[in-house]
Amino acid sequence: MERFVISILVNNHSGVLSRVSGMFTRRGFNIDTLTVGETESPEFSRITISIHGDKAICNQIVKQLEKMYDVKTVKVLKRDETVARELLLIKVKNSPESRQEIVSVVDIFHAKITDYSPEALVIEIRGSSTKINAFIELVQPYGIMEMCRTGLVALERGGNCLKDA
Amino acid sequence: MKLKGAQIVIETLIEQGTTTVFGYPGGQVIDIYDALYLAKDRINHIITAHEQGASHAADGYARATGKVGVVIATSGPGATNLVTGIATAYLDSIPIVAITGNVPNSLIGRDSFQEVDITGVTMPITKHNFLVKKVEDLAPTIREAFRIAKSGRPGPVLVDIPKDVQNALYEYEKAPVVEKTPVAEVDNALIEQAAQLIAESKKPYIYIGGGAITDDAGAEIMALADKIDAPIGCTMMGLSAVPTSNPRWLGMEGMHGHYASSIAQNEADLIITAGCRFSDRGTGNTKKYALNAKIIHIDIDASELNKNIKAELGISGSMKKVFAALTDAVEAVKHEEWSARIQELKEETEKLEKQDNTLTPFTAIDAIAEAAENANENIIVATDVGQHQMWTAQRYPFKESRTFISSGGLGTMGFGLGAAIGASTATGKKTVLVTGDGSFGMNLNELATAVTNQTPVIIFIMNNGVLGMVRQWQTLFYDKHYSNTTLERKTDFVKLAEAFGLNGYRAFNLAELKDVLKKAFAENGPVLIDCAIDCDAFVLPMLPPGGSIDDIIVDPSAM
Ligand SMILES: Cc1ncc(C[n+]2csc(CCOP(=O)(O)OP(=O)(O)O)c2C)c(N)n1
Ligand SMILES: [Mg+2]
Prior knowledge:
CATH architecture of the largest domain in chain B: 3-Layer(aba) Sandwich
Radius of gyration of chain A: 18 Å
Oligomer: heterodimer
CATH architecture of the largest domain in chain A: 2-Layer Sandwich
Mean pLDDT of chain B: 97
Number of strands of chain B: 20
Low-confidence stretches of chain B: none
Distance between the termini of chain A: 26 Å
Shape of chain B: globular
Structural class of chain B: alpha/beta
Distance between the termini of chain B: 72 Å
Number of domains of chain B: 3
Number of domains of chain A: 2
CATH class of the largest domain in chain A: Alpha Beta
Bound molecules: thiamine diphosphate, magnesium ion
């Protein structure tokens, strides 16, 4: 099982996201993360999906996506030629005993405390998924009250663009 | 010219070459029906008894002609009644456009009267669907729906039109019939690789599916088969692509395939597959499927390659062109040993399928073919789903492409009558529907449609009093627990026919059947034949579900 990151350029219409995600459900493909947002052009949205599976499953997903009417371009991004980031917002319990230790973890990870209250710290961190996983593990002992991850966004390095693929 | 949205719908259908539409009126399509009224000398509309029947009729129209079939239904229950028909077309890759009315834009999302999110409902069973929110998008969307439905691997497209859009005025200008999206040319390197595999093969087998009919590739298939000395087998959907009289023809393989076809496929060292998705009904257990063979898989839909079966070589492209290119690229060869083996298998199959002079499922089918021959009718054969369908698929001597109309992928009981009406309406040909007492019971209301339109459909009920196909499984795999498959109905099909306004005949033996068929073929409108069939007749051979060729059942009494 490998991880694949698939970038998809789609028409910016209502309902497109449910078509794409519906195809995954219907064909039994599991999604690890899915993000969607505007692009440089108002006509298109960009969906980034990360999955775990073997090469054959990844190929099948790409071909099924390519058939869809609203899908313009599909590309599997190569790990070492891709900048991939996730953002995490995490609310950790604040207490005089643990505060200093949390702040050190935040510093080491180049994270940021975005909100401070006597009960809770809201921390913001971005980076690769592995970095974020490691961070979560480290703050776990202090008490995670809630958290929210964006899922992966990714761009190819260099001058290649999805719309030209 | 400024027209109402509803008129734009009808003008666009006419412009795209639609001659007959099937449908059913209702509150949210009343404007479209008004437009049909105004255009009634330019487009024919057939009202069915039920929207499901209309959806199957549009499907039958498409299967028999290759044209896009069109069905119209109102919002809510009208639209949901199309669902089975749309799914049937989807699984068999049949081009239809379904047009539904919906509540006005202002009422959408409020659970208004007869409001259903039909684009949401049909998302997984359409190639694509549209909700048209603005009248300016109407004509372009319908044209796009036609293009999608017929391009590449065909399929159903639904266009949902809120009532206010049907009422709004907009400029309409006639446009030409939309072209199919061109299919990419095939890389010559792939053709050469395929030719190489063919050159190395000593036992090639050509295996075709419904794509052969879509792409009208019969002649190219036969040419390649002749040049490389290969037999031709098919899925149920591939039936009629090549005449069954072709000496290379082995017919259907798989769960209820001919013995020779399934065995030859298993012994082959190369299977050249085209326009077929390796459905489980064809392959059985994929881990044990065709273990002796390398596979070349050709399909217009690239996502089919390596989806169900891993192929040595996958080629995505037009089947017709790939076969023509392959025929050019290969050397003519003869495979004496393989041909002798095929001959031997054919003889074994003939023995297995030999009939005496009594009324059996096969002699009944033979009698239909004979009656058609005698009446000089070039007929279409439609079926429902069950044993009668398999018997017809195995036995009927098809001569021309698009003359066998049957629900393959979805296996929709109740498909037949609507589809037969659609096929006959589209072609003007006499159509024999071979149905079962169970299947016919599902949508027999469409007798009314056939009578009103005097559609020349011969409804041939293989009446075994049971849901025979399920009963067969119960006999073989469920200790004869005949749970809810013995119908014990008192329906008198002859009286039923009379009540609907057509003639009905009954046959209990072969002599009666031949006599009755002669009468039926002499009639011009619809006619029904109720033919008695033994409830314990089997469809054989059978590869048990999930089984492999080693498990083939030819004689159930030996089990
Ligand atoms: C709509 C639908 N419901 C149920 C089935 C399951 N099924 C497949 S074949 C069959 C029996 C068909 O009986 P009949 O039409 O009498 O044909 P026979 O097998 O007796 O020839 C059934 C119930 C189906 N294919 N379609
Ligand atoms: Mg029956």
